[in-house]
Structures are given as structure tokens and as C-alpha cells.
Specification:
Layout: E1 10-11, E2 47-49, E3 54-55, E4 62-63, H1 79-87, E5 100-102, H2 104-110, E6 113-118, H3 128-137, H4 141-146, E7 148-151, H5 155-167, E8 171-175, H6 181-189, E9 193-196, H7 201-215, E10 218-219, H8 226-242, E11 248-254, H9 259-271, E12 276-282, H10 287-294, E13 298-300, H11 317-326, E14 329-333, H12 335-349, H13 355-371, E15 377-382, H14 392-402, H15 419-428
The structure holds pyridoxal-5'-phosphate (PLP).
InterPro entries: Ser/Thr_Dehydratase, Ser/Thr_deHydtase_PyrdxlP-BS, Thr_deHydtase_biosynth, TrpB-like_PALP, TrpB-like_PALP_sf
EC number: 4.3.1.19
Protein name: Threonine dehydratase
Length: 432
């Protein structure tokens, strides 16, 4: 059953004063001249775009037209240096080699072998400790003694706190004042000092960077640093080693700032270039898709927060440089599809993933259905399980919408006599 629907894709820049690019199909697939990467870091502020400025069907691979044309020379490390960094990484002092498990029920129903890279089983329940530990373990002793600082209300905070505990250094974790108690308490339990400040992540980050400067602490960024990227890249190394039963068609990776996918891509594309590396983003948090599409980093004017782990307005500079060269494209999925995948994972393994953790599974399903993929091996990185318990109710409700077993319909009813009767009469004619 191969369903090839002509994708509807449109890209426009609604912000006043922003440049309007030609429509997506019309951008020729011609690479920029070798060595000319000036367009990657345009001077001045980043272009502001809205997530809805690019629309396509779920499952359609929004292609990366620059893939394979060479990494720009203005980044920090070459791909070979990344490979060396990944191979020599110290993450296993703290992280597990997570299992690559076959999802047998999903494999049966999709007609492909679905492999799950279980990063949700790590200590602190996400992959984020890999990058944080890799960066921190490399810091010179004197720098560690001065302590580290980061800003995060999510998995990065826990990764940094646990790494600091293991390395015996002091960590300050800065979180917005809106952070739920359960999150900051769990970081505090790991021995870190929590500072609640600012109404948004940006304000918390500004405070953290300032304090890092004043106290000589090392700022540990969530994704945009070669050591963070290399730490996450150890997942790619493990997948290549663990996979059984024939070649892998594609690895699906959730994308926030791009550290995870950049790390996996930089390893896998070097060792097995034929394996597709496919990013997955929510429709309303598609900063990487739009950045690849415009061939420059863009800033989203708003971002959907349902999959909070990937709610990022601007992807990293170094992560974009790598993704532009190495990632095949990105698939977009809806909130309902993410919820349906959380349910699938529960039925398959009795584990509950957080929304960002289930993103790759949702993208893999949408892609396989869209392109009618059958009989291949595909891998989805289940990246985290830090689910806010109160969210479960919403997830269970939306899961049935995502599976198209239930639908949510909205209507306007004039506020006048007989409206409700007329509404009931109209609805009774439908089979709902
Ligand atoms: C569970 C989970 N999945 C995916 C991501 C995305 O990772 P990155 O920002 O490196 O793209 C994050 C980021 O924090 C995360 O917490």
C-alpha cells in the first residue's frame, strides 16, 4: 500500500520587512560555491519566521538540499575530529550503552522492523547526560574546581547535575520561576544549587551566562558545543554496533537545538553513509526544518511547548553547520501523533515516554506510511521519559485522536433561541 500524495509545501516569510524567498520547489538544488559559506552566518539579527510558514503533510521528508556538498570550514572541528572525539568519549563513566530493542508489535503492524534505541532507560531518563558529561569530564581540574553553570528546566539540567555529582564539582542550575517544583526538586536532590529566576528560558540563560562570567564558572550549553555533540554522537556509534538483521534504512532522531541529530549524523554518515538520518520535529516547533529550508539559521516567532524537550526557537550554529551537510531531511508530526506514539510505546514495552521522547517514533511511523516503506530496518531514538504525570490525562485523550479513533469537532452556535435544537438535528444526520 504505497500512498504517494503530492506534498503541499509552501514557504513564505510573513514578518514585515523580511525578505520573501521563492517557493520551496523553485529553489534550485545547486550548491553554493565551495568555500563560500558566508550565507550561513548572515550579519545582523536572525530572520524571524513563523512555524506555520512551511506546511506539508506529516510523513513527507522535507529534504535538505545542501546535504553532501561539504561542511563549511568555519566550524570548530572537522568530521574526522568529531569521529575521534566520539570514539574516545568518556560517557561510559556515567551513561549506559542503552539497548536497541525490536518493537515486535509495531513491526508487525507497520510491516517494517522497528528498532528502538532506548535512551529513555538512561540514568535521569534521557540521553542528555552523555553530552554534558563528555564536556565536563574534559575540563581541566582548575576549571572544574571553579564549578559549572547551566540554564535549563528540562533534561539538560539533570544531565549536568548528575555529571557534576560524579565529577565532584559544584553545579548551579538556573531555571525560570515557572518551573514546576517536581523538576527543580529532582535537580536539587542530585546536589546542585538551583536558582529560580526570570519568567522565560531566555532570561534564565542571560542570568546564567552573566554569573558564569562573574564567578569563573564554566557555562555548559544544552546543544551547541562540539563536546556536547560528540557525547550525543556515542548513540550513533552504539546503533552501528548493535544493529542486527541487515542494513538500516533510516535512523529517526528528535530535533530540538540539533545536538543529538548532529552527533548521530557525524558518526553514522562517516561509517555507513548509505543510512538515512532523518530529523523529526513537531509542526509547531520546526526551527531546524525552516533553517535547512532557508539555508540559514532562522528564529521562530513562536514555538509550541507540548514537546517541551524540543521547544527551541533557534537551532545551534555548530549543530546547523553539521546538519546542513549530513542530515537527509526532516519529517514533521502533530501533537496528536506524538500522543498516539506514547500509547504505542506503552503497549509495546510498558514504558511511558515524554512527548519529545516519542517524537522519533511518531516521525518514523508517518514516514513509513507516507512512502509505503516495507520490510526494511528502521531505528527510532526514544530519547527521554521525563513525563510530567499531570500531562498523562491529556496524552491519553489525544492518543485516540492521533489514531483517528476519535475526532475533535468545533462549531459556532449563534446565541439565539432554537440554536441548540438545530445543532442536534444537524449532528443527528452524521454518523457520530
Ligand atoms: C527528551 C529529549 N529529546 C530530544 C531532545 C532534543 O535534543 P537536541 O536539543 O540536542 O536536538 C531533547 C533536548 O533536550 C530532549 O530532552
Amino acid at each position: 500500500r504505497c500512498r504517494r500524495v503530492r506534498p503541499f509545501i509552501e514557504a513564505a516569510l510573513p514578518e514585515s520587512g523580511a525578505e520573501v524567498l521563492p517557493s520551496f520547489e523553485k529553489i534550485p538544488g545547486i550548491p553554493p560555491p565551495v568555500g563560500d559559506h558566508s550565507h550561513l552566518a548572515p550579519p545582523g539579527p536572525l530572520l524571524k519566521v513563523s512555524p506555520s510558514s512551511l506546511q506539508c503533510e506529516s510523513g513527507y521528508l522535507v529534504p535538505n538540499k545542501n546535504m553532501g556538498y561539504g561542511i563549511s570550514g568555519d566550524g570548530t572541528l572537522s568530521p574526522m575530529q568529531y569521529l575521534t572525539n566520539i570514539l574516545g568519549s568518556k560517557v561510559y563513566d556515567l551513561a549506559y550503552e542503552s539497548p536497541l530493542q525490536l518493537a515486535s508489535k509495531l513491526s508487525g503492524s507497520w510491516g517494517v522492523n522497528v528498532w528502538l534505541k532506548r535512551e529513555d532507560l538512561q540514568p535521569v531518563f534521557s540521553f542528555k547526560l552523555r553530552g554534558a558529561y563528555n564536556m565536563m569530564a574534559k575540563l581541566p581540574k582548575e576549571q572544574l574546581e571553579r564549578g559549572v553553570i547551566c540554564s535549563s528546566a528540562g533534561n539538560h539540567a539533570q544531565g549536568v547535575a548528575l555529571s557534576a555529582q560524579r565529577l565532584g564539582c559544584h553545579a548551579v542550575i538556573v531555571m525560570p520561576v515557572t518551573t514546576p517544583e517536581i523538576k527543580w526538586k529532582s535537580v536539587e536532590r542530585l546536589g546542585a544549587t538551583v536558582v529560580l529566576t526570570g519568567d522565560s528560558y531566555d532570561e534564565a540563560q542571560a542570568y546564567a551566562k552573566n554569573r558564569a562570567f562573574e564567578e569563573g564558572r564554566t557555562f555548559i550549553p544544552p546543544f551547541d558545543h562540539p563536546d556536547i555533540i560528540a557525547g550525543q554522537g556515542t548513540i550513533g556509534m552504539e546503533i552501528v554496533k548493535q544493529v542486527k538483521g541487515g542494513p538500516v534504512e533510516a535512523i529517526f532522531v528528535p530535533v530540538g537545538g540539533g545536538g543529538l541529530i548532529a552527533g548521530i549524523a557525524v558518526y553514522v554518515k562517516r561509517v555507513c553513509p548509505e543510512v538515512k538520518i532523518i530529523g523529526v520535529e513537531p509542526f509547531d516547533a520546526n526551527a531546524m526544518t525552516l533553517s535547512l529550508h532557508h539555508d540559514r539559521r532562522v528564529a521562530l516567532d513562536n514555538v509550541g511547548g507540548f514537546a517541551d524537550g524540543v521547544a527551541v526557537k533557534v537551532v545551534g550554529e555548530e549543530t546547523f553547520r553539521l546538519c546542513r551537510e549530513l542530515v537527509d531531511g526532516v519529517v514533521l508530526v502533530s501533537r496528536d501523533a506524538i500522543c498516539a506514539s506514547i500509547k504505542d510505546m506503552f503497549e509495546e514495552k510498558r514504558s511511558i515516554l515524554e512527548p519529545a521522547g516519542a517524537l522519533a517514533l511518531a516521525g518514523a511511523e508517518a514516514y513509513c506510511k507516507y512512502y509505503g516503506v516495507k520490510g526494511k530496518n528502521i531505528v527510532a531514538v526514544t530519547s527521554g521519559a521525563n513525563m510530567n504525570f499531570d500531562r498523562l490525562r491529556l496524552v491519553t485523550e489525544l492518543a485516540n485522536v492521533g489514531r483517528r479513533r476519535e475526532a475533535v469537532l468545533a462549531t459556532y452556535m449563534p446565541e439565539e433561541r432554537g440554536s441548540f435544537k438545530r445543532f442536534c438535528e444537524l449532528v443527528s444526520l452524521l454518523r457520530i
